[in-house]
Amino acid sequence: MAAIPLSVPEAAASTDTIQFKLVAHSDQISWLHEKLSLLPEVVVPPLPEPPLTSRMDDQDYVERKRLQIERFFEKIMTRDLFVQHPDFVHFLSSDMAPTEVGRTHRGVLSFLRFNRVIRPNDHGFKSYKAPMSLEGNDQETFHRHQVYIIRLESYFGAIAESLNHLIQNREALSDVLTHMGDLVIETTQSKYRLGDGSAEELRQGQRALDHKMQLFGLLMDELGFISTRQGIEETMKFGDVMIEQKNSMDPLKTVFNARTQKLMEYVESVKFRNKKRDKADKLKVRMGMHAPEVQATVAEEQE
Fold first, then answer.
1. Is 62 within 8 Å of 51 (Cβ atoms)?
2. In order of start, what are the domains of the chain with their CATH numbers?
């Protein structure tokens, strides 16, 4: 692996283990993703959508984005081809400039903005059927693999949409629980059941009932909090993973399309070669093998 140039401060020169902290913003990570995506026959993990500055005060949102980036780099680190790539080494080094950024608004991972519809000019399969029989070209198997990828994409997308509906239902349930707690406290106050409490013998029971209703209302608030913060957080994490799996089909399609493009170019070259061969065969029959025109045509065919 190539050496990584680092600028080490003099204060860090010691015999102890030194830990380095890499600080990179989302545009620089996008730059790395663009560089790795230039590899034509390698599936690159999908890039998470950049965080919104308006939501940086939301701790749950920030943690969710951190986990998305963590999963992205975990997938990158599992491939030696990515780790040893010169652009990845440059990204880790101190030579990485703040001005080296990727294209903005290029995010493909956004759970709440998920759209399963694929535009015709975006990450679609190229359809091509060779007009001739080619050795080693099992087009039926290749087509089945394409159908399988599309089904996987649809499957992951359906799960993500279902999780999105689940999150919305849990948020509605949380609001209902909180509202129910408020209504219980308001409608079961002891003054509605025991009068205004002017009687001395009823005051103690009235206070005990008020205390119990207060606890019940707080319990409803706590249930709403758990449903919102804990349950929805786990659902969002699972939904993000589903979106990552769904979006990982896009670079896989790029690899398949590269194969289709090469097949198209190969078929065109075979057609051109056959055309030259037919021309040479006709000239051989008409003029003989040693005619200058025949020799020139044969040489052109061999080229």
1. yes
2. 1-98 (3.30.1520.10)
